[in-house]
Write a structure and sequence with these properties.
The chain is α+β, with helices and mostly antiparallel strands. The protein has one domain. Helix content is 34%, strand content 36%. It has three helices and six strands. Strands 1, 2, 3, 4, 5 and 6 form a six-stranded antiparallel sheet that branches. Helix 2 packs antiparallel against helix 3. The longest helix is centred in the C-terminal third of the chain and has 18 residues. The radius of gyration is 16 Å and the shape is globular.
Length: 128
C-alpha cells in the first residue's frame, strides 16, 4: 500500500506493508480510543515529480502494462503531475491536511516511492 500524508509543510510518501483494510482498521481504532473525528471518502490525490527524473519512462510502461488508474500529465516544462485514485482520510471533511492511501501494483508502488525519494533529494539537498 502507498500512503501519502499531506500537511501544511508538504507531502510525505511511504510504503506500508499492511493492506488498506488492515491499516484503516488500525486507524479507526486509534481514532475511537483517542476520541478524534475520522472522515473517510473515495477520492483522488496528486503530487509533482521533476520531468527529467530517470525512471519516468519505466513508470509509464508499468502503468500501461498493468492498466492501473494512474495518470501522468505535464504540469509545466520542469515537472509532471502524478494523479491517483484511492481513499482520503482526514479529521474533518474537505480538509486539506490528511492521509491518502492506495493499493496498486507493488512494482508501481515501489517505483513511485523511489522516484519521490529521488525528487526529494533533488529539491532539498543536504548542506554541510
Amino acid at each position: 500500500m502507498l500512503k501519502l500524508t499531506y500537511t501544511e509543510t508538504g507531502l510525505y510518501l511511504e510504503l506500508v506493508p499492511e493492506s488498506i483494510e488492515e491499516w484503516l482498521h488500525l486507524r479507526l481504532t486509534l481514532s475511537l480510543r483517542t476520541s478524534q473525528c475520522f472522515h473517510l471518502e473515495p477520492g483522488a490525490a496528486s503530487f509533482l515529480l521533476p520531468a527529467n527524473l530517470q525512471g519516468l519512462i519505466r513508470l509509464h510502461r508499468l502503468i500501461h502494462r498493468t492498466e492501473q488508474e494512474i495518470t501522468i500529465t505535464p504540469a509545466d516544462h520542469r515537472s509532471v503531475e502524478i494523479s491517483l485514485r484511492g481513499i482520503w482520510i482526514a479529521s474533518i471533511a474537505h480538509e486539506a491536511e490528511g492521509v491518502f492511501v492506495i493499493a496498486i501494483d507493488q512494482a508501481i508502488e515501489s517505483l513511485l516511492f523511489e522516484l519521490w525519494q529521488m525528487s526529494e533529494m533533488e529539491i532539498s539537498p543536504l548542506k554541510y
